[in-house]
């Protein structure tokens, strides 16, 4: 029987050190194969929420489940296998400057033990698709911000993860490039990947009909397609 929810949060709180909570009583469940935008003002907690999802942070309180397993109960030795099922696009790219675009994107496949001929074929096809066919051997310092973001996105999706998390993935791109990469995310989602994209781009949200999770001062509300936090009918909506 297929897994119904790949992500579940139950009354999750997160604080750094002795400071105030940056996430408060966050509860939601994302079904396998769903697609959500994550929105909120700067400082609302979007990056912190994503960090819990890709296991770089542990909640201060509450419960997080990934792939049907309570995160706090996953043995440390099993964490790398869980992380390999999650593709992440970071705002700061996190590329290795001494490696070419091809070798940066190939890293997840090499870790997984793929044959080099298969790696080269898949990586080259994907980089050409995202518009970097002329830059396969270029190293990150020679690329523009948008090109670096394209490499980072290609690396995140090359092994067809079960979950894709993206933090402002189109922030350094022109509208045409952003639309092309969104179509890549949509195709991955069509094939079964659960997608969460943090963005400030209201144009993307209007163009692509997916529900939105919105953070306000660390609290989360889920809005259905076509609704936003500005609409009065949802001002008092229960937080999901």
Q: Biggest sheet, strands in spatial order? A: 6-7-8-3-9-10
Number of domains: 2
CATH superfamily label of the largest domain? P-loop containing nucleotide triphosphate hydrolases
Instruction: Say how many strands there are.
Output: 10
- Which architecture name of the largest domain does CATH use? 3-Layer(aba) Sandwich
Strand content: 25-35%
Order of helices and strands: EEEHEEHEHHHEHEHEE
- State the secondary-structure class: alpha/beta
CATH class of the largest domain: Alpha Beta
Rg, please? Answer: 18 Å
* Main beta-sheet annotation: 6 strands, mixed
- The fold-level CATH name of the largest domain is Rossmann fold
Span between N and C termini? 26 Å
Number of helices: 7
Approximate shape: globular
**Fraction of residues in H or I helices:** 25-40%
Which runs of at least 5 residues are low in confidence (pLDDT < 50)? 235-240
- Residue-averaged pLDDT, rounded? 90
């Amino acid at each position: 029987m297929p897994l119904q929810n790949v992500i579940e949060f139950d009354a999750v709180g997160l604080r750094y050190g002795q400071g105030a909570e940056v996430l408060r009583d966050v509860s939601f469940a994302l079904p396998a194969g769903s697609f959500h935008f994550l929105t909120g003002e700067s400082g609302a907690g979007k990056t912190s929420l994503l960090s819990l999802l890709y296991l770089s942070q542990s909640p201060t309180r509450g419960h997080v489940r990934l792939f049907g397993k309570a995160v706090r109960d996953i043995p440390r030795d099993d964490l790398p296998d869980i992380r390999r099922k999650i593709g992440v696009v970071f705002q700061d790219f996190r590329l290795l400057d001494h490696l070419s675009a091809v070798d940066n994107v190939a890293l997840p496949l090499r870790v997984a033990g793929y044959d080099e001929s298969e790696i080269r074929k898949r990586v080259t096809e994907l980089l050409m698709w995202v518009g970097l066919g002329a830059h396969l051997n270029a190293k990150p310092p020679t690329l523009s911000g948008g090109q670096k973001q394209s490499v980072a996105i290609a690396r995140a999706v090359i092994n067809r993860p079960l979950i894709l998390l993206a933090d402002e993935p189109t922030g350094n791109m022109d509208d045409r490039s952003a639309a092309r990469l969104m179509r890549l995310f949509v195709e991955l989602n069509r094939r079964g990947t659960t997608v969460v994209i943090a963005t400030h781009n209201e144009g993307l949200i209007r163009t692509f009909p997916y529900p939105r999770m919105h953070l306000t001062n660390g609290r989360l509300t889920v809005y259905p397609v076509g609704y936003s936090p500005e609409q009065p009918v949802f001002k008092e909506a229960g937080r999901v």
